[in-house]
Structures are given as C-alpha cells and as structure tokens.
Amino acid sequence: METKNYRFETLQIHAGLQPDEATGARGVAIYPTAAYRFKSCDQAAKLFELSEAGNIYTRLQNPTTTAYEQRIAALYGAVGALAVSSGMSAILVTVLSLAAEGDNIVASPFLYGGTYNQFRITLRKLGIDCRIASGERPEDFEALIDDRTKALYAESMGNPTCAVPDLEGLGNLARRRDVPLVIDNTFGAAGYLCNPFEWGANIVVDSATKWINGHGTGLGGIIVDGGNYNWANGKFPQIDGPSEGYHGLNFHEAFGPAAFIVKCRVDGLRDMGCAPSPFDSYLMMIGLETLSLRVRHEVESARKLAEYCRCHPKVERVSFVGFDTHPSHENARKYYRFGSSAVFNVELKGTLESTVRFVESLRLAANMVMIGDSITVVTHPASTTHRQLSDADLAAAGVTPTLLRISLGLENADDIIEDFEQAFSQIG
Ligand SMILES: *Cc1c(COP(=O)(O)O)cnc(C)c1O
C-alpha cells in the first residue's frame, strides 16, 4: 500500500495490509510457523547471505509480524521497524547494536524503572557505561558526552513523573555532537500523541505492551529507524564496516538508510532471540486499528479525574502535564498532541499505610503495574516499580510513599471518579 498521503487514523487501519490473492481475506493472517520452505538451495543461500529478502525462520521474520512492522513504520513515517518480544528487549537490542564494551551512552535521569536497572546494572556488567545525566536539559547530557558516546537516550514522557524533555534541543545536540538520539516513545502512542522523528530523533523504541496493544493482552516492543543518521562517520564500524557475522558484509553500503534496523534484525534478533510470537503481532496489529480513538478518550478522562483529584481534600498534589502547574506543561504543549497524557500522578495526604488502604479499596480501578490498558490502572510506585531503588534514587526520581500513578482506561470517567470517591471515604 502507498502510505505517504494518508493521515494517522487511516494508516492505523490500512498500513501493512496486503491483499490476500489466495483467499480474499480482509484481515491479516496469523502464520503459526517456525520456518519457511526454500524454493531451492540457491534461494536459501541468497536469503542467508542477505542478498535476497525473504522468510527464513520466525526468530528473524514472520509474515504477520512483517505486516505489523510495516504499519508501525508507516505511522512514524520511518524507513523500517522491528518487532521484538517486549519493550525491554527493544531497548536492549537497540543499545547493544550501537554500543560495545568500553563505549558509553548518556541517559536522562527520568527513566522507566526497568530501563534504569538494565542500564545501571546489566549493561554495566557488559562493559557499557550508562551515564545518567544530572537533569534532562540538553546541557546536562552534553556534559557527559565523549568520543566513546554511542547514544543519547531519553523518554518522550518520563515514567513515572511525566517529565517531557526538550526533544528539539536534544535533537539539535545529537546532530551537533554526531551521536544518535534514541527516544523511548511509549507514552507517545506510536506517534499519535508524539512523533520524536519530527524533532531530530534517530531511533525510537516503544513498549507495544502499552498503548499499541491497548488491551493488556500481550507483551511486545518495537524499534523504529528514522533512517536519518549518517552511519559513515567512523564511529560505528559494526554498521559501516565489515560485519563479522555476515562474511564482511557492510550494512550501511548494502542497506543504506535502513542499515540500523536491518542490523538489529539480522544480528540482534538472530543472536538474542527475543522474537515476538505471530499471535502477539496480530494482537498489536488489531490494537493499532483503534489507537487514536482509545487514546483520545483516555486523555479526556485523565483530565476529568485529575480535575476531580485536584479539588479533593485528601489529595496533597496532582501532577498532570495538562495543567499549567506541571513543570513540563510547555514542553507537553509543544511535543504532545492535546498537550496532555492519559497518565498522571497523585500524591495523597497521609502515610504509606493510608495510601495502601486507598489502593486496596478501589473496586473498578485495578492495582497493577501497567499503563495504556483498556481498564484504569492505579500503581503505587514505592511498593512496585521503584521498589529496588535506594531512598536517594527514589527522591531523585520523584517517588514518595504516597505517590500513585494513574493510567486511564476506556470506562466512563464518571464511574472511575465514583470509585475514587468511595475509596477516599475508606481512609481517615
Ligand atoms: C513498560 C515500559 C517499558 C518496558 O516495556 P515492556 O514491554 O514491559 O518490556 C519501557 N519503557 C517504558 C516507558 C515503559 O512504560
């Protein structure tokens, strides 16, 4: 399908769908196959040396997953996308495709808890130094860049405080220092709320588990390649240089602007093995069809619930990017459609214990660690996502004992407000 001129809402339904000549089927098929029969040994050899594109083995590619990847790439206006088994594996494959032992990456201090641990513990053990900037301003990043820096890394909306960095400033810094800018755009909802490529990002990673799937029915991650980084600058011999794994093939010469995403697939997925199941790719593809409708509703409901909470006597503070009191309000207006998010934070008055009682009194809203689900979720970061952090790191991440993170679902917002009302009545 020619995708250039259609708008997001149309692409989310049509992109990636190929007419099925054999059956006329309207929907994308699920191909539950591990491997693919070669037409000949000669064809197999060409597929293996990457001189011909095609299916070899589902760890590398699968037709259902390919359709889903094409839809994602179209939504972002990108050269290619790679689906993997989770958001965490998208981040891991991306960083390991860019950096090796002795290299470093510079990251924002406002990171998803899992990312923080992957960077600070696991990648460090592999000899990749993950430097956490002292703040999220471009100058905070620049202070840590040296000639072994292989990526700048930030979230387009930081989990859990909803901090929105100056994406354009980071894009300018990345270009000036000639380092790829990687943005975790999970909150940007596949580009519907925020498209970091418009501001100079080179690579996007996204936990598809959240708004792309949208129904809490499966895990997934995607890597998206903007095709806008010049790999021929001598810093990335694994991309512009002879590849050890492919008899000296040079990815940049062979695949041009798609070099990075091809490398992530044929080296990253081949070696790390974090391929998605075709059934999960199917769920992601169906989830994408309604993404804009879901996100619109969730963002509207978030505002209603945030306004209700803001006026409640048992609430200490509401931190919602849609309010002009939020430190990232102006950045959200610049980078996010509706200047807003489906997620916000509430700090209750009282103690850890009364906060736990509140959470356990909720009947509709679910006590889970999840965002972007069709059901409303209330998360208590201090006892869950941020439990492994020290007190100092907790304070730096903005997590207090009475903080709750709320991600609005698809219910009628008034029912959620009534649920909160009854839960508030349970605490002193
Ligand atoms: C959930 C999440 C991840 C990790 O994704 P999984 O699919 O759970 O592995 C990474 N970044 C952000 C911002 C997330 O919210």
UniProtKB/TrEMBL annotation:
Cofactor(s) for this UniProt protein: pyridoxal 5'-phosphate
Family note: Belongs to the trans-sulfuration enzymes family.
UniProt keyword list: Membrane, Pyridoxal phosphate, Transferase, Transmembrane, Transmembrane helix
Transmembrane segments: 73-100
Pfam families hit by this protein: Cys_Met_Meta_PP
InterPro entries assigned to the protein according to its UniProt record, in alphabetical order: Cys/Met-Metab_PyrdxlP-dep_enz, OAc-hSer/O-AcSer_sulfhydrylase, PyrdxlP-dep_Trfase, PyrdxlP-dep_Trfase_major, PyrdxlP-dep_Trfase_small
Entry keyword Transferase: yes
Gene Ontology biological process terms in this record: cysteine biosynthetic process from serine; L-homocysteine biosynthetic process; transsulfuration
Protein name: O-acetylhomoserine sulfhydrylase
Modified residues (N6-(pyridoxal phosphate)lysine): K210
Gene3D superfamilies: Aspartate Aminotransferase, domain 1, Type I PLP-dependent aspartate aminotransferase-like (Major domain)
High-level lineage: Bacteria, Pseudomonadati, Bacteroidota, Bacteroidia, Bacteroidales
A single GO cellular-component term on record: cytoplasm
Organism: Alistipes timonensis JC136
GO molecular function terms noted in the UniProt entry: cysteine synthase activity; O-acetylhomoserine aminocarboxypropyltransferase activity; pyridoxal phosphate binding
Xref: CDD domains: CGS_like
